[in-house]
């Protein structure tokens, strides 16, 4: 199995890429994920091939276009920790898209198999569902960028803000069995940002009664991505350090049905908490 932490590069490559995950590098089938840091005026051009993309503008302002979508200027937040919904660009397979940076830009490219059932479109902040989940030390804030209620073939994309000292993806849950309607199989990546950036967060990825057991406790730095191929995967933000992460999920069926760790199911009954 691939290493579960994929760190960002300190310096972008010639195209601006600082992080890259492919199904091949992850050892799985569906999810691909990249992060680019572009300088003002720099262009990123991407062919989608047989995959659909959701380009999430993490910070900065840019102009985007596709084969069918004329140039659109997007962007408002200059840091993910402004905690306002992002602009994103959905692009179907067998297309090409361009992102031209109007300021310094950080953009995440989320990818999964596509069927070409949906047209390219800009997902504006007003179309991103915002909600609070949990209470007390499990309270966190959600931006549903590409939930299953919105058009796509495979991708599910969401960003989460976890205040310092709080927990997310909690109680621990998993979605690694193709056992609908009880549970869906979804590969998942977490892309973590930390404020202040010298802080850390902790994520555990573990299985129960698995013939190939997995139990890893990961100490995360700003810019780290985590692979969740299977198992439960709770996250904790260290006190004093706010945590942001961008989740990308995809599997054979585009629906999110999770299973809680039975040892911690009582927490749902004591104080019902929606999941990540």
TrEMBL record:
Pfam family, one: KduI
Organism domain of life: Bacteria
Isomerase in keyword set: yes
A GO MF label: 5-deoxy-D-glucuronate isomerase activity
Top-tier EC class: isomerase
A biological process from GO: inositol catabolic process
EC number: 5.3.1.30
Record InterPro entries: Deoxy-glucuronate_isom_IolB, KduI/IolB_isomerase, RmlC-like_jellyroll, RmlC_Cupin_sf
NCBIfam families, sorted: myo_inos_iolB
PANTHER family found in the cross-reference section: 5-DEOXY-GLUCURONATE ISOMERASE
Name listed for the protein in its UniProt record: 5-deoxy-glucuronate isomerase
Source species of the chain: Paenibacillus roseus
Name of the gene: iolB
